[in-house]
Every structure is written in structure tokens, then in C-alpha cells.
Amino acid sequence: MMEMKSGEIVAEVRGQVGCITLNRPKALNALSLGMVRDLMAALLAWQHDDRVLAVAIRGNGREGAFGAFCAGGDIRFLHAAGSTGNPELEDFFTEEYALNHLIHTLGKPYIAFMDGIVMGGGMGISEGGSLRIVTERTKMAMPETIIGLFPDVGGGYFLSRCPGRVGEWLALTGETIGAADAIAFDLADGLLPADQQAAVWEALGTQQFGNGQAVQDFVASKFVAAGAGQVSARAEIDQYFALPDATAIVQALEAADGEWERATAQMLRKRSPLMLHVVLEQIRRARDMSLADDLRMERDMVRHCFYLRPGQSETVEGIRALAVDKDHAPQWNPGRVEDVPAELVRAFFQSPWPAHAHPLAALR
Fold this sequence. Notes:
By secondary structure, this protein is of the alpha/beta class. It has helices at residues 33-47, 75-84, 88-104, 121-124, 155-160, 166-173, 179-184, 197-206, 212-220, 234-240, 246-255, 259-270, 273-286, 291-307, 314-324, 342-347; strands spanning 3-5, 9-14, 17-22, 54-61, 64-65, 110-114, 117-119, 131-134, 139-141, 190-191.
């Protein structure tokens, strides 16, 4: 039976369950290439091992187990690699998306304890799970437009399947939601009080289960009512985020009188204008795609994010402004949502590879 303690993740079989702890608490468990590779190795080892009935994953917080799940990919690495041409940038996205696909198609229960911050890449390693657990501390978002990126890791697939136009709203704004809204938007399955997580986790390693479904049923039996969500603007979300393009959405919000509309418009004006158009197109295309096709599309898109316009990457600039120089003043190009040429948006959806040579050609 496999046990892996790489420092950044701990993977061990306890009883009949493969247990994974993300162990990079000072970085809020942001995913490095090494973590992606270790997660993949653990899941491949357990996928066809009949002694492992299910997989459970959690994050270590600064005060110990739980408290933070995963804040996403390691954006400082992405900035450095994207600025210097480090080929590990390509490896990171190819391997991360393959990992996301494996989680969706694992073939046995995958139980994600989504406590604390669950953003970006943290969504990628949880949304494909068969049981997605949130707590009263959960802060969930796909905030990639803030750094000039797009909601990747299968974000097109799972956001496009939220009710109404919630997927477009979450994708364009990067807004953070809590547990009740995550459940209502089909991004989580149930609420487990944070102070009960440790006992449930321990029981997974000590109890005897008849099969994988029994493991999942045991955890789900501990769920409690999530209460009311905080997002009250569902009608407005469905109205504005159904408009035909990003320019129409921003302008309609600005023309309205409501406080929610004004605040949402101001938020969108701070995002990369180019990526607002790209992301809206991504979500709408993904609605009719399989997971594998969506991940291949996102792999094409991420290549364009870093290499479409040498020296003018919206993503490198966005990460610089947020996490490197921290001036929070990205110089987007184009600077206004009204000024984005359609051909620049279309380029993101043209694959740089022929189908047979695509890095994710093997995904089904």
C-alpha cells in the first residue's frame, strides 16, 4: 500500500480509504508542479487498487488540519515561468488538466473537504469529486479574471452547468461565495460543520465499509442544513449575464439604477477587458462540450494567454500587479471592454496543435 510524504502533500492509505492532505499551509496549499505530480501518482496508484474503496482529500491550514483547502495554482511560479520562457509552465498546465480529468473519471468515490479558501486550482481538484463538502468557513471563487487569466481547470465545464447565468457571473466577476450558495449553484453537495470534520476524517480511517458507496454515504449522513444563501441578485444575474457580449453586459449594468448593478459594473471595469470577452465565450462554448473537450479548449486558451502576443501577456501583467509588485494597477491592453477586437478574442479558440498532437489528446 502506498504512502507518500513529499512535504507538500501527504498521501496514505488509512483503513480502506486513500487519504490525501495538501501540506503547503503558508501558501494556502497553492498547487506547485510537484504537488500536481504527487497527486496524480497517488490517484493512479489507488484507481485500480481494490483495497482502496474511496479517496478523501483535505488541506492543512496554518493551525493544523483543515482551515484552508487550496487557493489555486502557484501564481508566482506562473509569473516567473511566463516571464522567462520556463518550459515547466507548459508542463504545469498539461499535467494539472490531466489531473482534473482523472478526478472526474476516477471510478470510485472522491470526497473533497472544501474548508476555508477554495479557489482556482482548488476548484479543479474538488469539483470533479463525487462528494463535495463545504463548511461555514468556505470561501469559494474562480477569480482568474482578476489576474488576466480565465477560469481554467475545467471551469468552463462546471461553471457552465450552474443554474441560469450564474456561471457567466462567477466567471467574469470572480466573486466569492459561501457554503449555501455553493450548494444552491451545484458547486457543492452538502454542509459539514467545520468542527466536525476531524471526527469524520478519523472515522474514515478506522471504520469498516462494505464498498465505496458506503464510505460516501457515511460522510453524507453527517451533513446539516446549509441555511439561506447570501446571493440575492439571482434575477439580475440571469438578466444581465445573458446579454450577447461582455460590452453589452458592462454597459447595461452601468445604465441601470441599482446599487448591485453599479457595484458589479465597477468590478468588471477593473478586470482585463480582453479576458472578459474571452471568458464569456469560453463559458458559452463549454455548455455543449464534454469535460475532455473543454479541457482541451482550455489548454489551447492558456497557451494563448502566455504566448499569443509576446511581451503583452494579460496574465503576466495581471499577476505582476496583484502578487509581484502589488500595485493593483494592471495596464490592460486594450484598456476598455469596448475596444477589444473580435479577432483577438477568436485567436484564443484556435488550437496551436493539430488534434492528434494535442497535449491532452488522450483524454476521453
